[in-house]
Design goal:
By secondary structure, this protein is of the alpha/beta class. It has helices at about 15-25, 35-55, 60-70, 95-105, 125-130, 160-175, 190-205, 210-220; strands at about 5-10, 30, 70-75, 85-90, 115, 135-140, 150-155, 175-180.
Length: about 230
């Protein structure tokens, strides 16, 4: 099975970014959130990004138009019914996520994979609540999604290898690098990043340097490209 139609639940910064790269890659994308204003804001942000690319000669107006044609926005989860893979990008509350996955199980076709962008919750626990644990997988994207190449792919204890393979193939389709990770607190990147950020805060609290100086030191000395 190939992933041709992608659903994204949650039109915030991360969800909009995932929808954008999906549309740019030629996938049909359904972007859903609770309120029309939220999905409208997401589309406005995508158009702004594409307008910048047009002005820089990276894409044409025709290309921008084709990206927009690949997008459908909605406030109804029932519009995921014919998606091949749905990525949940909502609030980091495991009880809410489990409820949503159970709902999606009743809406989506039997073949549909349901992925979570969670940054640390148990995929096994979410999968068990879904009713289709073999088709539930973690796909942890990083912000800003159009720029950051990594996606951590995390199987639960009952996730099938076919599901992992299809999630990995989707990453390739949208120009991302999939890195497999086992279930553990923070997976890979956040597990390493959080202690580093804590130490930065401790150094600031001890008066070692100002916040701006710590940022500058890490950019120049450790080649970290972004301020935190």
């Amino acid at each position: 099975m190939a992933i041709k139609k992608l659903g994204v639940l949650g039109a915030g910064t991360m969800g909009a970014g995932i929808a954008q790269v999906g549309a740019q890659s030629g996938l049909q994308v359904v972007l859903v959130d609770l309120e029309q204003a939220l999905v409208d804001k997401a589309i406005k942000g995508m158009v702004k990004n594409w307008d910048k690319d047009v002005s820089k000669g990276k894409i044409t107006e025709q290309g921008k138009g084709s990206f927009l044609n690949n997008l459908k926005v909605s406030t109804n989860n029932n519009d995921f019914k014919d998606c091949d893979l749905v990525i949940e990008v909502i609030v980091e509350n495991i009880d809410i996520k489990k409820g949503v996955f159970k709902e999606l199980n009743n809406i989506c076709a039997p073949h549909t994979i349901i992925a979570s962008n969670t940054s640390g919750f148990s995929i096994t626990e979410i999968g068990a609540a879904s009713g289709r644990p073999d088709k539930v997988v973690g796909m942890h994207f990083f912000n800003p999604v159009p720029v950051m190449k990594l996606v951590e792919v995390i199987p639960g204890s009952e996730t099938s290898q076919e599901t992992v393979d299809l999630a990995t193939e989707l990453c390739k389709t949208i120009g991302k690098k999939a890195i497999p990770a086992k279930e553990s607190p923070g997976f890979i990147v956040n597990r390493l990043l959080v202690p580093y950020l804590n130490d930065a805060a401790i150094a600031y609290g001890e008066g070692v340097a100002s916040a701006a100086e710590i940022d500058e030191a890490m950019k120049l000395g450790a080649n970290i490209p972004m301020e935190r």
